[in-house]
Specification:
single chain; 189 residues; mainly alpha; Jann2411-like fold; two-stranded antiparallel sheet; 7 helices; 6 strands; Zinc finger CGNR domain-containing protein; ABATE; Znf_CGNR; ABATE_dom_sf
Length: 189
């Protein structure tokens, strides 16, 4: 009897390709589709292209292609389409995959696996690849790793890469706010 390696630790292998595109989905949703972050209301960026370029630079992530204002505006729609996947809405994710023509194929030299047509524009390519990455995470039974922050007043999403998928907050500030709030509630009773 053979036991697959991922069953030993209870973890599926999520490769760097899937992780990279899932992180892009997180970045798009957090920059363009969230209305509350860390307990405060967030206004949509006035200049989406500048906001995305700043977020890419902060993460040290090159875009690969020139991002136009029209692309950034369309990516806001993609972010809104991908946001429900972080709460387990697979129907919305499936609709996004169909809308952006996500189809596995090899292209380039050397050939690279992608989930967008070789001639796809930047927005459809990113949407197809990021949506497929989220679908792959969910499809291997790791959907609980796609999370929304549990702190009150925060809608930020994240891709939980902890060993036991136990992360609950987008960051330390939300974790501290939640702990302080729980402490104050205990003190009142």
């Amino acid at each position: 009897m053979t036991i697959e390696a991922w069953r030993i630790t209870g973890q599926s292998q999520i490769d760097s390709y899937v992780g990279r595109w899932a992180e892009l989905a997180v970045l798009l949703v957090n920059e363009l589709a969230v209305t509350r972050a860390r307990g405060r209301p967030v206004d949509p960026p006035a200049d989406r292209r500048a906001a995305l370029e700043a977020a890419f630079a902060q993460q040290g992530r090159p875009t690969g292609r020139a991002l136009t204002g029209a692309d950034a505006d369309r990516l806001a729609g993609v972010a809104a389409e991908l946001h429900p996947a972080f709460t387990g809405d697979v129907a919305a994710l499936n609709a996004a995959l169909v809308r952006h023509a996500a189809v596995p194929n090899l292209h380039g030299d050397p050939p690279v696996l992608a989930f967008h047509a070789p001639g796809a524009d930047l927005v459809d390519a990113w949407a197809a690849d990021a949506g497929t990455a989220l679908a792959m995470v969910i499809g291997v039974g790791q959907g609980r790793r796609l999370r929304t922050c549990e702190a009150d007043g925060c809608e930020l999403v994240f891709f939980d890469v902890t060993r036991n998928a136990s992360r609950r907050f987008c960051g330390l500030s939300c974790q501290n706010r939640a702990k302080a709030s729980a402490y104050r509630a205990r003190r009142r009773t």
